[in-house]
Amino acid sequence: MRSPITPLRDRLRGQAHDQAHGRLRQLLQRPPRGWPSFSSPLRSTAVTARLGRVLGIAFVVCFATGLLSHYQYHPWTWLPIPGAPVWGYRLTQGVHVITGIACIPLILVKLWSVFHQLFQWPPVRGLVHAAERGSVAILVASSVLQLITGLFNVLQFYPWPWDFVKVHYWLSWVIIGSLLLHVAVQLPKIREGLSTPVSRSNPGRQRTVLGTSKPGGLTRRGVLISAAGGVGLVVATTVGQVVPGLSRFALLAPRRPDRAPDEKLPVNKTARSAGVVSPAQSPDYHLTVDGARNFELSLAELEALVTEETTLPIACVEGWSKSAHWRGPRLLSLIERAGGSRASHVTVHSLQKGGYNSSTLTGSQLESALLATHLNGERLSLDHGYPLRLIAADRSGVLQTKWLTRIEVR
């Protein structure tokens, strides 16, 4: 038998549910007191879309040139790195570093243009919206980390415990994947933004101060022009580390190619920091060649070999590069003496312990390689690889192994 108080209890429950639902709906409709709000008229979909287009192109350029750089260190055996054009790595790595540095002011302006959306209310409107915001968080976090650590790598400053090359490589895939997802999700807004004039919501020549409506301040077009100016200034003060005629303007470049105290060519790693000062100057120094026919050469025998001369650039992963004149015996002549050929895989080893103390050559890079004894008309200095170093075309600087002691022919 139903209790007489049951209808009253059900009615009270229903009223409580309706009140709770109403309060929740009211809370979702209006942000809590003190929630940040932004009213700058400079932010708009048109501005964000234009900034995003330039930043997206820069990211793709960085990604493509970064893959080419990575291939220098991990080439497929069936597709050796070509030896032509000789300036190939110099160009791609220079573009990679300059574009990456230019992305720093670009991403700051882009984040400013969408910063207010971080505080939209309600923060999440459903599972799809939550996934979208999560993908943006991954894209922003990975991009900022990539640009900061990349800049530190250019400065040769490593305050982290992980392997920079591996993290830099795999993070680039995370970024490019997140970017493609972001573009796919935001494509309608991107199209709308790019098709909308920047000043549509600011009719006429009305000007507004950032965050206020006072006259005489910055316009949206002014924001884009300022961003372009900042990026242009960064590029102009770093491009000189690649373009010889602009070296004196490379104020932000970590290495000024026109400022080389030793044989007119900058040095990344000195003989002292590599720990090779004594063995490189030892009177017992000799070069060992391991192949089908092993042999050794003393320093005097090396210097008596027939030499060739060539002009090739040193192009480093930090982005700087400079051409230099080299002289020394052809590597291939020693390979053939050891029973090898142009098709051999050749690994050269350094006196240096640890780090990049060996590198492998195949194909046309092997054919172009010299065992350099002279640089710009002078005997190699210790810091440039005395008594013997490798120099080959279209090759990363860190793979132009210095202080050679052994050659392995397979």
Automatic annotation (TrEMBL):
SUPFAM superfamilies membership: Oxidoreductase molybdopterin-binding domain, Transmembrane di-heme cytochromes
Membrane-crossing residue ranges in chain numbering: 51-73, 93-115, 136-155, 167-185
CDD domains: SO_family_Moco (cd00321)
Annotated keywords: Membrane, Transmembrane, Transmembrane helix
Pfam families registered for this protein in UniProt: Oxidored_molyb (PF00174)
Residues in Oxidoreductase molybdopterin-binding domain copies: 281-409
Cross-referenced PANTHER family: BLL0505 PROTEIN (PTHR43032:SF2), PROTEIN-METHIONINE-SULFOXIDE REDUCTASE (PTHR43032)
Protein name according to UniProt: Molybdopterin-dependent oxidoreductase
